[in-house]
Amino acid sequence: MTISSDNQPVVEDTLAQYVRRIRIGLKLSQGDLAAKAGIHIQSLGKLELGKTNRLNAKTQTGLSRALGIPESYLEAVCRGVPITEVQGFKICPTCWMPGTPPEPIWLELRSKYCFICGTSLLTHCSGCNEPIMSLKFRFCPYCGQSYKNLKKSIN
Ligand SMILES: [Zn+2]
Ligand SMILES: [Zn+2]
Question: Could you give the CA distance from residue 49 to residue 51 in angstroms, rounded to a whole number?
Fold first, then answer.
């Protein structure tokens, strides 16, 4: 699935504005979207009026499928944080110390290389390509690959 950047929330977006914009972009009525997402039309109505700022897991999954956007985008607008923060982390595999927060400059969208050592920053596990979502662990929770000092393994 390709996600056009138009579907990304902007920082000022509220959940209501964001859902409404994508729904209209997809030319869906509230009824269409509610049916596709498997939620009640009244719940969607409330949501688009800005009366709901939290989504339960079922609604979040339903909406993300129906709108064709990652659940992390919905999570970001609910929390009012930029999507970079929920999309995953970017770390320097050489300088990052497990258990510490990443340098803010690594997280900048345009940063591709570490400002300290010049190593390519890592956003995805090199073992299984899952995004780095937590820095509590020094290993990828999906495949056990170490995030730090990764050597690209060529099988
Ligand atoms: Zn570095
Ligand atoms: Zn992995």
Answer: 6
**CA–CA distance, 27 with 30 (Å, rounded to integer):** 10
The CATH homologous superfamily for domain 5-80 is: lambda repressor-like DNA-binding domains (1.10.260.40)
Q: Nearest bound ligand to CA 90?
A: 1
- What gap in Å lies between CA 128 and CA 67, rounded to an integer? 26
Report in angstroms the alpha-carbon separations of 151 from 26, 86, 125: 42, 26, 11
Contact present, 86 and 9 (Cβ < 8 Å)? no
Q: How far is the CA of 131 from the centre of ligand 2 (A)?
A: 8
What the block records as the tokens of 87 is 């999309």
Give me ligand 1 centre to Cα 115, in Å.
Answer: 7
d(C-alpha 48, C-alpha 17), whole Å: 7
Per residue in 124-142, pLDDT (tens digit) is 888 888 888 777 778 888 8
What is the chain's mean pLDDT, rounded?
82
**In angstroms, what is the span from residue 2 Cα to ligand 2's centroid?**
22
SS3 label, residue 144: coil
Work out the percent of the chain whose per-residue pLDDT is above 90.
Answer: 35
